[in-house]
Design a protein that fits this description.
Layout (H helix, E strand, L loop, with lengths): L4 H7 L4 H9 L5 H12 L6 E7 L5 E5 L8 H18 L5 E6 L6 H6 L4 H20 L4 E9 L5 E10 L1 E3 L5 E3 L5 H19 L2 H16 L7 E2 L7 H12 L9 E4 L3 E7 L6 E7 H9 L10 E5 L6 H15 L15 H9 L13 E10 L2 E7 L2 H15 L5 H15 L21
Antiparallel strand pairs: 1-2, 1-13, 3-5, 3-8, 4-5, 4-12, 6-7, 9-10, 10-11, 13-14
Organism: Paenibacillus alba
Protein name: Transposase
Pfam families: Y2_Tnp, Zn_Tnp_IS91
Length: about 450
């Protein structure tokens, strides 16, 4: 069984996910089914793989495809680290604030039932900060916003995290620093904006249903909805790296899942009211229901860029700021070039200190020899370096699918095996005796 405990909860011998789908199929969003299915097949060679062969000892490494899904804990963890690394080199090297916009808990279920409002929910939060800078100081700040729909207990709690530059760019490219933002004053604006958003997005029948919640949220929050924006202290890069990882983190980290016995799941969380570490015990069905709520709709971007960080303005902004700095000889901003994303090999080497393409036995390099992928649900050889490689890949496919070799295939396999065993020392490096000494490592 897979060592990923979330995979065990969903797909082990108890078949909890299949039972959940059968019971609640009418209420599960199509994209949830799609993402969970991708997660299920992540790392399974039956969904495709590449083979690498050591040029020295001829050891074979089979590398399965990864799903790169938004629900997959394995893929999202690596993506979060890489995004954070690129972020802290790509933004302006100035002080930033980590701003959090929250709403009354009585409105959480309204956004759960009407997820179409979440995009505008993000935009409105950003607009409050952006308009303050533009009206009060005549500058355009840089804002990166991330939507979180989850609380520490996996409850549906939509709120917006923002990375905001403490300062901004004037129209001539001058960078003006400004550290004070009246967040207490902005709380009331935020409350008004959220209540208006709900009212304008719902039809008359829906508004009648949620009106008591809207009235209660207004009455219970006399100072407005809570906005948190602590001043950042210490190294700017460390701040950016931490905030970046926090903004793009998954709903639950695997290390928080403390136990699973086939019926119940126990996970830890930090109680925000008193800061204590606590645990919660849920049935598997309830745990699955809570987790899948936070899978975003298809093509929904949970991270968005605004102001001088918007994709449309970022290059122009950096160019203007750089030119102003040269003229003013005042280097308050270090506008760096965009950092290149690391590939699979570089990420593993950085994390483990070992090159995955260097054989641990003989220290020779692995060579890419072939690839198998799914075409219309059937495993097919996508690329093979030579006929010997193709024969090996076809044999692997039969092993995975359980299909029997035909008489012609058996004869071909015997010939290829004999040829491989007789490779001369000074000839081209082949996969020596693949069929007799095949070793599969994921």
């Amino acid at each position: 069984m897979d060592s990923n405990i979330l995979k065990q909860i969903f797909f082990d011998k108890h078949h909890h996910w299949d039972a959940f789908v059968q019971k609640h199929s009418e209420h599960i969003r199509p994209n949830v089914l799609k993402e969970v299915q991708k997660f299920r097949g992540c790392g399974d060679p039956r969904n495709g793989f590449k083979i690498l062969v050591c040029e020295g000892c001829h050891d074979i490494k089979r590398v399965p495809y990864r799903c790169k899904g938004r629900f997959c804990t394995t893929c999202s963890c690596g993506e979060t680290e890489e995004w954070s690394r690129v972020l802290l080199e790509d933004v302006f090297q100035v002080n930033h604030r980590h701003v959090v916009f929250t709403i009354d808990e009585g409105l959480w279920s309204v956004f759960l039932m009407h997820r179409k409002m979440l995009k505008e929910f993000m935009d409105e939060a950003v607009q409050i900060i952006k308009m303050h800078f533009e009206k009060k100081h005549k500058i355009t700040p840089g804002i990166i916003a991330g939507l979180h729909t989850f609380g520490s207990r996996l409850n549906f709690n939509p709120h917006v995290h923002m990375l905001v530059t403490m300062g901004g760019m004037k129209s001539n490219g001058e960078w003006k620093t400004y550290d004070y933002v009246p967040f207490e004053m902005l709380r009331k604006q935020w409350q008004t904006v959220v209540l208006k958003l709900i009212r304008k997005s719902l039809n008359e029948e829906e508004k009648k249903q949620v009106q008591p919640r809207l009235q209660k949220a207004y009455s219970a929050n006399g100072e407005g909805f809570y906005v948190h924006a602590p001043k950042q202290k210490g190294n700017v890069k460390e701040q950016l790296g931490y905030i970046g990882r926090y903004m793009k983190r998954p709903a639950i980290a695997l290390k928080r899942i403390q136990s699973y016995d086939g019926e119940y799941v126990v996970f830890s969380y930090r109680d925000k009211t008193n800061g204590e570490e606590k645990t919660e015990k849920l049935t598997v069905e309830e745990f699955i229901a809570r987790v899948i709520r936070h899978i975003p709709d298809e093509n929904f971007k949970t991270i968005r860029y605004y102001g001088v960080y918007s994709r449309r303005l970022k290059k122009i902004s950096k160019k203007l700021v750089t030119e102003w700095q040269k003229e003013a000889r005042k280097w308050v901003v270090r506008a760096q070039r965009q950092l290149k994303r690391r590939n699979w090999r570089e990420r593993i080497q950085r994390k483990t200190g070992k090159d995955p393409l260097v054989c641990q036995k003989c220290e020779c390099y692995y060579e890419y020899k072939g690839e198998v992928c799914l075409e219309e649900g059937i495993l097919t050889v996508k690329y093979a370096a030579c006929e010997r490689t193709r024969g090996c890949l076809e044999r692997m496919i039969r092993d995975l699918t359980g299909k029997q070799e035909t008489k012609k295939q058996k004869e071909k396999t015997a010939v290829v095996s004999k040829q491989l065993s007789a490779v001369e020392a000074d000839s081209e490096v082949y996969m020596f005796d693949l069929f007799g000494k095949r070793k599969h490592t994921a």
